[in-house]
Design a protein that fits this description.
With 138 residues, the protein is an alpha+beta fold. It has 2 domains: 18-92, no CATH class; 98-138, no CATH class. It has 4 helices and 4 strands. The protein has a two-stranded antiparallel sheet. A two-stranded antiparallel ribbon has the order 3-4. Helix 2 runs antiparallel to helix 3 (48-64). Bound molecules: zinc ion. Zinc ion binds next to loops. Zinc ion (ZN) is lined by residues 107, 109-110, 112, 127, 129-130, 132.
């Protein structure tokens, strides 16, 4: 029996050699497809079933693709987008936990998020990114 599973494992390893395999984007596509399948049970949203199938086919295509550089570029784009989303929510969470002690605002010149202690009156803040000075009330 061990020889049988060994042969299957070796065959799979040979098949996947030179192929891209699974990554974070594949996982996201599979989860999105699952959510869309569940939503497609609602009668007016039946069309989502087709979209979920397309996402699954895309995910499988990416897994078995031999064009690794193109798949890595797609993954890099996905990770950049995901980083922006998680960064936004992390900032909102930090703002909420610090809301009594700190004030958050954006630098008018470069858009960087700055944090100053509350209750200090009018203070001059230097942006650490672009070194522009802003006077603000805290
Ligand atoms: Zn700035």
């Amino acid at each position: 029996m061990k020889g049988f599973f060994q042969k299957i494992g070796d065959g799979l390893r040979r098949f996947m050699q030179g192929r891209y395999g699974q990554d974070e984007l594949c996982n996201f596509l599979c989860i999105a497809a699952l959510v869309l399948v569940l939503l497609s049970w609602i009668p007016p949203l039946r069309f989502l079933y087709v979209i979920s199938l397309a996402l699954l086919v895309w995910s499988l295509f990416r897994c078995y693709s031999r064009n690794i550089s193109a798949r890595q570029a797609e993954r890099a784009g996905y990770m950049r987008l995901r980083g922006k989303c998680t960064g936004f929510f992390a900032l909102q969470k930090r703002k909420w936990t610090d809301r009594k002690e700190y004030k958050y605002f954006r630098c008018k010149k470069c858009g960087a998020v700055l944090r100053v202690p509350k209750g200090k009156g009018e203070i001059k803040v230097t942006c650490p990114k672009c070194h522009s000075e802003t006077v603000t009330k805290t």
